[in-house]
Amino acid sequence: MHRPGDLDDADFQFLDVEEGCELLEHNVSAEGIDYRMVCHAEGGEANIDGHMAFLGERVEGGVNIHTQSPMGEMTMQTVIEGERIDDC
C-alpha cells in the first residue's frame, strides 16, 4: 500500500536544505540515506556528510561537519538515534 511520505513517493523529502546550502549528493533507499552538502555563510564554508540507517522502528546515524571559517578549522561529529513511539 502506497502512503504519502513513502520512500518511492515523488514528494518524499527527508532533507531540509537551508538557504545558502547545496545538496551535492544523496542516496535514499529502504535501508537508509547517505548525503553530502556544502553551505556558505559569512565568509566561511561547511562541508557536511551524513548517514542514517532505517532499522524498522528505529533510526541510527551521524553527521560530520567540517568548517572553514575566519576563526579557523573545526570538525563537529553528531550521533543520531531515534525510535518510533506512536503514530503521528
Q: What's this entry about, in short?
A:
Helices cover 0% and strands 61% of the residues. It is an all-beta fold and 88 residues long.
The helix fraction, in percent, is: under 10%
Shape: elongated
Instruction: Flag low-confidence runs.
Output: 1-12
Q: Main beta sheet, described?
A: 5 strands, antiparallel
- Biggest sheet: strand arrangement: 1-2-3-4-5
What's the helix-strand series?
EEEEE
Radius of gyration: 15 Å
Q: Roughly how many Å apart are the termini? A: 18 Å
Global structural class: mainly beta
Give the beta-strand count: 5
Structural features, described:
The protein is an all-beta fold. Helices cover 0% and strands 61% of the residues. The protein has no helices and five strands. The protein has strands at 21-28, 32-41, 44-55, 58-69, 72-83. The chain has a five-stranded antiparallel sheet, with no helix packed on it. A hairpin with a 3-residue loop joins β1 and β2 (32-41). The two termini are 18 Å apart.
Key descriptive features of the protein:
mainly beta, 5-stranded antiparallel beta sheet, 0% helix
